[in-house]
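Subject: sequence -> C-alpha cells, single chain

Hey, anyone have a minute? Need the predicted structure for the following. Not urgent.
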Amino acid sequence: MKQLFLLVSLFSIYGLSISSHAQSVQATKEAIAAYSQEWKGERSADGRPRVSDDLVRRARNISLEEAWGVLRNEGYHNQFVGDWKIMRPEQPMAGRALTVTYLPSRPDMENPIKEQGKKEKRSGASNSWPIDMLQEGDIYIADGFGKIQDGTLIGDNLGNSIYAKSKNGVIFDGSVRDLEGLKAIEGFNAWVRGYDPSYIQGMVVGCINCPTRIGRATVLPGDLILAKEEGIVFIPAHLAEKVVVNSEFISLKDKFGHLRLREGKYTPGEIDTRWTDTIKADFLKWVADNPKEVPMTKQQLDEFLKGRTW
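Reply:
Had a minute. Here:
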C-alpha cells in the first residue's frame, strides 16, 4: 500500500496521469513550482523560474571554478559535468534551462505519447516539440541517455530554429548531426557527447520541463546554466544572483590584487592571506575610483559587502 501511494504521488507531482487519459507531455506549472519553491521571482509562462536577462548576460563572464565553489559552499555538490565535445570551445554560453528527458522507445509507450502530442497540437517529431517552447535566453538541455548512433537529437534545420528562438545553443547528453551546417549558424553553440551522420531513431520525449539528469547532475527547468570549455555548471535559480555576484566580487578582488602586486605595493603573502584593514580600504577606494571595472550594481555590491568576512 505504501509503494502504491508513493507511485501515485510521484505521478501527481510531475503532472502526469496513471489513467488512460494522459494530461500532458510537459510538467505542469504546479509541478515546476513545487520543486522550485525557493525561487521567489518572476516565472515564464510555462512556470519555470525566470532568472533575469541581466544575470544571464553577466554569467557568461564569471569563472566556472568560482561559480562551482559558491555552490559547494551552499551544499550543492553535484552541479558540474565535464568531458564534452564542444562545437565552439572559445564561446561561453549562459541561459535558462528548458529540460527534456528522452527515453528508448517502445510501442505501448510511444504511441500514447504521440497521440497526446497531437491533442496538444504539437507538430513534427517529438524532438521538435521542445523547440516550439523556447524563448530568448533559454538553453535546450536534453538527457538523450548518451546515445550517439541514431541518437542525433537535431541537425542544422532544427539548429536554425533553436537559434532563431533562443539566441543560444544546446546541451545534449546525446548527439547531433550536420555539424558543418550547425557551425554555419553564427552564434549557435553545442555541448554534446558526439556527432553522427545518422538520424534519430528509437527515441521519444518522455517529459518536457521535468527534472532531468545530465551526467552526475540533476537539472531543474529554469536553472541558470553556465557552459564553458572546462564543462558545465548548473546553478539553481534561487542561487543565481548569489553565485554571479560572489564570482564577480572574487574576480574584482583578484584584479585589484594583481594590480597592486605588479606595482609592488603589497607582497604576495599580504594579498594571499586575510587582508588587513589598510588593504580593504585601498580596495574599496579603488572600486569607487574605477566604476567601469565593477560588473554589479552599487546596491548589489553594498548588500554583498554586508555579509563579507574577507
